[in-house]
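Explain my protein.
***
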Amino acid sequence: MNPSQIPQLLKQVSYADPRLLPEDEKELAALAALWAVVLADVPPDFAMHAVGQHYASSPFPIKPSDIADRWRTVVRDRMGRHTGTFEPNQHPGLDPDDIEGYQQALRNERDAVRTGQRPPMPFRAIAPSLSTDDVRAMRQQGDLLRHIKEASRAARAENARRRKLVARYPDLNEQMHELPGHARWSGSVGGNKRTAAIVAEAEERAANERVAA
């Protein structure tokens, strides 16, 4: 939260607990400044939700540390379920040989997971054939980055194949590019069921054409 958001948070808290706000304006300003420091890393929506959780189970006045502690617990849980790798086909524009770009993309993804903008990525969702122990061993041997680069190349090739396949069928190609966020479809399917359905239809048509030939 930034300092400008704290007064509104305190006002909302006071509806549940009038004891929180001092009447003196200077004391109120000092209180807001303190809360701003403690909650600097906490998203506003989470802070409000944490207030509700607190008063649902406790009769005591809430402290900013109560909210910050809840946030740290959530972050630890998210990052504990995140492997620190990412799905290559979600980054089709990233050159596998661009080490700095890879590192920045990795930092951006970790920050998105930390703040709840995207769910944690377990390694089995990326490469089912590799276990957590495999990942640990690869990190120790320095092989993990090479594996990610190879997987990224393979994902880019598969994305290109899907784009070419769907483009063969004007009606499917039009449907694909009308989907939200697909004006410049990368070829990735990800977890989008509508995207997957269009690709599956294109695969079926191509298979039928091969059989007919």
Notes: Confidence is low (pLDDT under 50) at residues 124-128.
